[in-house]
Amino acid sequence: MGVFSCPLLERCLESHPDANTAGLIRTRLAQAGDLAALLPLYDQAIPVLEAAMWESALAPLQVTDCHALFAEMEAHIAAAGDDPRHAFVVVVPVADRPQHLRACLESLAGAAQAFHYGAGKVMAVIADDSRDAANITENKTIAEAIGQAGVEVIYFGQDEQLAELDALAASERQALQNIIGTATPDAFSHKGASITRNITYLMLNRMAQDDKNRLFMFVDSDQEFHANTDTSLRVFTTNYFYHIDRIFRESRAKVLTGKVVGDPPVSPAVMAGTLLEDVLAFLTEISGLEADTPCTFHRDSSSNEGAAYHDMAKLFGFVHSGEACRYQCRLQEPHDHAACLTGFSDRLNHFFNGEHPTRVTTYQHADVQGSVTAARTVYTGNYVLSPRALKYFIPFAGLQLRMAGPVLGRLVQASSGENFVSANLPMLHRRSVEEKGGSGFRPGVDRSAPVVDLSGEFERQFFGDVMLFTVIDLVEQGYPGKLLLSADICAQVMATETRMRKQYMEMQQRVMTRLDDLEALLSDDGRWWNNDQYADSRTRFGQFTAALRANFGTDARAWQLIDDEVHRGTRRAAIVDALSSYRLDRQSWEQALQK
Q1: Labelling 41: which of 112, 133, 161, 475 has CA 20 to 30 A away?
Q2: Is the domain of 72 the same as that of 45?
Q3: Domains in the chain, number
Q4: What is the distance, to the nearest Å, from the Cα of residue 205 to the centroid of all Cα atoms in its chain?
Q5: What is the pLDDT of residues 235-254, one digit of tens each?
Q6: Residue 487 forms part of a structural domain
Q7: Range of the domain at 75
Q8: Are 53 and 168 in the same domain?
Q9: Of the candidates 281, 345, 276, 312, which has an alpha carbon nearest to the alpha carbon of residue 512?
Q10: CATH of the domain at 118
Q11: At what angle do helices 337-348 and 535-552 cross, to 10 degrees?
Q12: Which of 382, 409, 441 finishes a domain?
C-alpha cells in the first residue's frame, strides 16, 4: 500500500477529464512506496489542473488548488531530504529603473512563495548598470528587502563588475573587448544590457564551478513572474522553476527561451503603422456613436496573430490578415463614450514608452512540457542557460544594437541544434510603471525636450535589423563554423542594408499616409470630439500626432541618421568588423571561461 497522504492530488483526480487515466493514477498512488514512484503522478496531474485554472479564467478556487497541489508535492520532496532538482540563479539587468526592478523582484518572491519550489533553490542577482546615485542606493535597498522576503539577492553593481574584470589579465580584457566592452572605471554605467549580461556571465561561470546543477535565468526588469495580463487580477499563474527544471532534466536542452505577454517586446520604431490603423478604426467607430451613451468598447475582438504589433511582421515569417484591432477600454466603472475617448487619449502617448494601446499580447494556454520545440530566437528578457551554455555570450555587444536576442538565437541554433528549445513559458511584460506612468531609463530615447525623440532607439533598431538579417543570410552560407572572407561579409552587409532601407522607407510612407488621414479626421469639425468640452482629449491627440510626425517624418532625426552616407558607412564598417571577429571572440571567451 502507498505510504503518502496526497489529498490535493486525489481531489485533482476527481475532476480529471479522462476517467481511465485518473483510475490508473489512483492505482499507482496506492502502490507508491517511494518518492520516485510518487512524483511522476504529480507530473501527470499538474497539466490537468493548470488547464482547468486557465479555462476557469483564473477563478480563485482553481488558482488556490493549483498552488496547493504544488505545495503538497514540495512537502513530499522536502520530507525525503534529498532534492536532486536544479537550483536557479535569476539575473535581472537594470539601468535606472528601480520601480520596475522592485515590481520584478517582488513578483519573483511572490512566485517562490506561491509554488514553494525547493527551499533555498532560487536566488537572484541584480546586475546594476545604473548611473543615478539615488537609483543605485534604491536598488541596494530593494535587494535587502527581497532578501527579507525569502529570496536571497546578490547585488552585482559597478564595483563588483569591475572586480570581475580586474581578475582578467590585460591581454584577456583586450581580447574580450567586443564582448565586455571598453568602459573605464570613471564611466562604468549605461554600458548597455548586452555588455552587462556578458560581464555577469563571468561571475555566473565561477558560481557554476561550485554547483554544476545550477541553471541561470535572465529576465528584464520590466517583467513579472506570471502570465496574466489583467492588471485587476494579480495572481501567480506559472511555476516557471518546476517546468524549467523538468525540461532540462528530461531533454538535452542547454538553452531554453520563453516569450512575453502584455506589452510588445519591440521598439515603437516598428509599431507606428499598426497603431495608426487601430487609432483610425477606433475614431471612425466612436464618431458614429453618441458621446453620452454607455461605452461599447468592452467586447473582446483583439487579434491573436503572431507579432500583430509589428509593422514588418512579414520579415519574420508572420502573415497578418490586415484587419485593425479593436480598442479594449480599460475603464472599470460605468462610463460613456466620451470617457472612453479620454481614456484612450491618456494611453496613446504611452506608445513612446513602448506600449501598444490596442495590441496587447494575451496568454494562450498550452501544456508546457508538450510545447517544447526547437527554437531560433532568444528572448533576452526570458531565457535560461545551463552552465555549459555560458559560452553563448550576447554577440556584438559593443555595437549596442537592438535585436541582440534574435541574433544570438540564430547563432545558437547554428551551433547547438536540438540543445536550443523554446517552451510556452511567457512572462508578463509591462513597459510603464503604473504609479508614475513612465518607463524609466531607455537607451536611445531622449525626453529632454517637450516632444520625445526616438531617433537613437530608431537608429539602433534599423542597424539591429541589418545585423540580424545579415546573420541569417551568413548562417545559410555556413557561418560561423565556416570561415568567410571579410569582403564577402561586407558585400552581404551592404546588400542587407539596401534591402532594409527599402523596407523602412515603405514603412515610413505608410505611416505618414495614415498620419495624414488621422490628422484630417481629428480636425473634422463635424466630429463630436471637436466640441469645447473635449479640449483635453484633443490636446493629447495633438501631442501624439506631433510626436509621430517628429519621429517618422521625412525630416526626422532618425531618418537623417539612416540617410547619412558617412554614418551608414561607419555603422557598416563596425558591423563587418564585428562579424569578422566573431570566431576569434568565441575562442577568447571559451578560454576565459575555462580558466
Answers
A1: 112
A2: yes
A3: 2
A4: 24
A5: 999 999 999 999 999 999 99
A6: no
A7: 7-80
A8: no
A9: 276
A10: 3.90.550.10
A11: 30
A12: 441
Residues 115 and 260 in one domain: yes
Q: Are 117 and 239 in contact (CB under 8 A)?
A: yes
What is the pLDDT, as a whole number, of residue 547? Answer: 93
Residues 239 and 121 in one domain: yes
Same domain for 220 and 366, yes or no, is yes
Distance, in Å, from the CA atom of 298 to the CA atom of 326, rounded to the nearest integer, reads: 9
φ, ψ dihedrals at 538, nearest 5°: -65, -35
* Cα–Cα distance, 354 to 356 (Å, whole number): 7
Structural domain includes residue 180: yes
Q: Domain boundary at 80, 108, 132, which? A: 80
Asked whether residue 259 falls in the same domain as residue 394, the answer is: yes
- Specify the amino acid at residue 569: G
Residue 388 contacts residue 254 (beta carbons within 8 Å): yes
Classify residue 158: in a domain, yes or no: yes
Is pLDDT of 437 > 50?
Answer: no
Examine the domain organization and report whether 97 and 51 are in the same domain.
Answer: no
| Residue 1: pLDDT over 50 | no
Q: Which three cell numbers stand for residue 525?
A: 469639425
DSSP 31-48: H--SHHHHHHHHHHHHHH
Report whether 83 contacts 77 (CB < 8 A). yes
**H-state helical runs in 58-132:** 60-80, 98-115
pLDDT digits (tens, 9 = 90+) for 305-353: 667 888 787 877 777 667 889 999 989 899 999 999 999 999 998 999 8
Q: Which helix (H) or strand (E) holds 541?
A: helix 535-552
Nearest to 543 by CA among 403, 449, 462, 466: 449
**pTM attached to this predicted model:** 0.93
User: What confidence tens digit (pLDDT) does each residue in 539-557 have?
Assistant: 999 999 999 999 999 889 9
Q: Locate 433 and state its grid cell.
A: 510603471
Q: Which residues have CB under 8 Å from 120's CB, separation 6+?
A: 87, 152
Asked whether residue 95 falls in the same domain as residue 216, the answer is yes
Spell out a b/e string for 103-127, using b for 16 or more CB atoms within 10 Å of the CB, else e. Answer: bbbbbbbbbbebbbbbeebbbbbbb
Contacts of 456 (CB under 8 A, 6+ apart): 443, 444, 445, 446
Can you say whether the dihedral through the CA atoms of 509, 514, 518, 520 is positive or negative? positive
Q: Is residue 280 part of a domain?
A: no
